[in-house]
From TrEMBL:
Stated name of the protein: Peptidase M14 domain-containing protein
Pfam families per the UniProt record, alphabetical: AstE_AspA_cat
Top-level lineage group: Bacteria
The family this protein is said to belong to: Belongs to the peptidase M14 family.
Gene3D superfamilies xref list: Zn peptidases
Domain Peptidase M14: 30-302
InterPro entries documented for this protein: AstE_AspA_cat, Peptidase_M14
Alphabetical UniProt keywords: Hydrolase, Metal-binding, Zinc
Active site: 274 (proton donor/acceptor)
Amino acid sequence: MRNSHFYPIGTPGQAWGAAELAQWRARQVRQRSYADDVLCAVDHLRERFDVAPYGEVTYADERFPLFAIRSRHWQAHLPNVLVTGGVHGYETSGVHGALRFLDAHAPGYAGRVNLLVVPCVSPWAYERIQRWNFDAIDPNRSFRADSPAQESAALMRLVAPLRGQFAAHIDLHETTDTDGSEYLPAAAARDGKPFGSHGIPDGFYLVDDTANPQPAFQQAIIEAVERVTHIAPADAHGGIIGSPLVAHGVIHYAMKELGLCAGISGARYTTTTEVYPDSPQATPEQCIAAQVAAVCAGVEFVG
């Protein structure tokens, strides 16, 4: 489907300028609290983990401290695992899945793996239930040198000293109905391009790295998640979100080339999870549980 009048901001065929960006910002309404939902949960983890700030996101008069949670007794001989959530702030189950994994499951892996977990990469977007940051930039296309996204740059600085030392990186995401109704149309309007939609897959799936495919790792996660919620089937073209299906519930993306979060660690095993919270077959609780199952399976695989 292509439509030249698909978004209420901007002129078809023209990229946004300052006026359009201001209009878009005016539409963004704070709907929940990063401090209440995330920082309070992080505070409760301080007795069991090392919790440290790794930066701050500042937009206009708002300041958001960024926190990372590490295994308390980091041991050089153990495999390191990076878990990230909330790169897209509107993808709720990734944030709460990372926090629940830390609270309920991570202590059981003490002495088996070293964990570095960042539960909410994009706090401004978390509060607005938004994919982009304040500057209408997608952080998950901005993990590259001289990143224009504060959130992406801060996370890369955190990870840089350990880059190449991770066994696995699990990045927690969602695919929602608003991808088709809001975010893809907004991106096309912002960039002055025509909007072409694709279907939204009903179910959980994974994105593996085109340059470093690890099918056994992906399969282990799919098998674990399938016990919690359903896996997305292929669409009529044999793919998911426009990419060919390479295995049950798995597609490939060029992670580094696209500036994706899962490409920053240099880990051998990387994956991006995609939960579908709008499915009539899944509840919010199942979506969080699916993220937790994915992380546990990934940790088990390397630890």
